Amino acid sequence: MIFADRMAAAGKLADALSGYRDKNPLVLAIPRGAVPMAKAIAQRLSGELDVVLVRKLRAPGNPEYAIGSVDESGWVYLTEYAARAGADQAYIDQEVSAQLETIRQRRAHYTPERAPIDPAGRIVIVVDDGLATGSTMIAALHALRNQKTAELICAVPVAPPETLKKLQDKADRIVCLSAPDDFYAVGQFYTDFPQVSDDEVIACLAAV
């Protein structure tokens, strides 16, 4: 399945999530690409919008390759291949520190006027524009599970089957529109896949 752009994917996800309409779900985006999508989904479902801040941990010498992730609380998820990628404990500690600083800066930048919306007791839908390794989604779901959500849903347009298997016990429900075997990168499943800027994220959150 090829999506014209993120908004087209968001529309299809909203259709798949229509059972949550008018149940006041909390729709949480993993910045930055998923924020405009999550805003559209929240509007369709009559829910609330916020962000869940997690960051991938970059492999030594290869910043596009994730060896794990960290959530806003400092909890770290490491893949089984982190050591093989050359990440010793000193490197991991340094990378975690750097990504936590980015998370702190983004929280202050994105929602300076308010605290994050409390997910406790809520139906929570975590949205990303696609998953590759799934590292950041795992961290996001872990962070939210610890906050006693009533129901936790992972919603993405596309992900490889092996990544979806990793998530099976991390959420109460996984909604994924396409799980192709020939997966190389999220962007290959979009005709138009531009970067989303911090200014766009701030504008989406300010309009809530």
Automatic annotation (TrEMBL):
| Natural source organism | Nitrosomonas oligotropha
Q: Show where the Phosphoribosyltransferase domain sits.
A: 9-192
- Database matches in Pfam families: Pribosyltran
Top-rank taxon of the source lineage equals Bacteria
Protein name per the record: Predicted phosphoribosyltransferase
Keyword set for this entry?
Answer: Glycosyltransferase, Transferase
Q: Name one GO molecular function term.
A: glycosyltransferase activity
